[in-house]
Design a protein that fits this description.
- The chain is α/β, with parallel strands linked by helices.
- Helix content is 44%, strand content 14%.
- The chain has nine helices and eight strands.
- Strands 3-2-1-4-5-6-7-8 form an eight-stranded mixed beta sheet, with helices on both faces.
- It starts with a strand and ends with a helix.
- 40% of the residues are buried.
- The structure holds xylulose-1,5-bisphosphate and magnesium ion.
Length: 257
């Protein structure tokens, strides 16, 4: 099958946004509203198993106070905290405090120049995606992508396949014509359930996870002079991930399956 599109996750894949971005912004929003919640880096790593900021807060509240987290007024609190957290996060990202992971800019540019479609499939909000793209790649960045699937455009967030299926429909391509890029287990499950081959570049929070059925699991995308390494199609691999390399992996996968 001919590959026509590449679909990227955002948090952890395009950039390390969690530990020093979302987590810090959540904590500031909590303290501003008088809550004594504090998510330290380790706790936040555990909470990342729950995708989506509002869902993560709901889950956390249930663990510390199961009765209080149920009433509908809690939903209004989560909405308000999430809105404020994202304002704080946007200001942090706009100030340039978060960079793209190595090789991301290079691969995006190569894929676009060669005429591939580019999409985004993420759990976070469209505003958060846009501010990250603008601050790291300038004003043209969002036009690199033909489709940005973000946040609440689907009801069921990752690990459900819905966000990938939404992006596939918008791009007008079949799952077999795309490759996904993810960093986490919920992300891999989402992409795989939607039928996509998936390249995993684990983030600082997911580097100890196993990623069964991924096309490749690499410590990054690599740059000339600073190659990535890991496993691809069942073999150890080291190099710079470019479009031709991905197409070779897809071909190898097709011949072995
Ligand atoms: C990662 C997430 C998000 C972020 C926070 O999304 O699960 O919830 O942690 O963003 P992805 P929000 O890896 O799919 O990009 O608070 O806006 O949800
Ligand atoms: Mg991610």
């Amino acid at each position: 099958m001919t590959i026509k599109a590449f679909i990227f996750d955002v948090d952890g894949t395009l950039a390390e946004t969690e530990r020093n971005g979302h987590r810090v912004a959540f904590n500031r929003a909590f303290s501003e509203s008088g809550l004594d919640w504090h998510w330290d880096p380790n706790l936040y790593g555990e909470l990342l198993a729950v995708t989506g900021g509002k869902e993560r807060m709901r889950h956390y509240w249930r663990t510390i106070d199961p009765m209080a987290a149920e009433p509908t007024c809690a939903e209004e609190l989560f909405r308000r905290l999430h809105r404020r957290k994202n304002e704080i996060y946007s200001e942090m990202v706009a100030s340039g405090s978060i960079e793209l992971r190595a090789g991301v800019r290079r691969l995006l540019r190569e894929a676009r120049e060669r005429g591939y479609l580019l999409g985004i499939a993420t759990t976070t909000t469209l505003e958060n995606v846009e501010v990250l793209l603008r601050s790291t790649m300038g004003t043209m960045a969002t036009s690199l992508f033909q489709c940005i699937g973000a946040g609440a455009v689907v009801v069921d967030k990752k690990p459900a396949p819905d966000i990938y299926e939404w992006v596939l429909r918008r791009l007008g391509v079949q799952a077999e014509e795309c490759v996904a890029f993810e960093d986490s287990l919920p992300g891999l499950h989402s992409a795989r359930q939607a039928g996509l081959e998936t390249v995993i570049t684990p983030s600082e929070y997911s580097c100890n996870s196993a990623f069964p059925h991924a096309l490749a699991v690499l410590d990054g995308l690599g740059e000339p002079g600073s190659p990535a390494s890991g496993m691809a199609v069942g073999k150890s691999w080291s190099g710079v991930v470019g479009v031709d390399q991905i197409l070779q992996w897809i071909e190898a996968r097709e011949t072995t399956s």
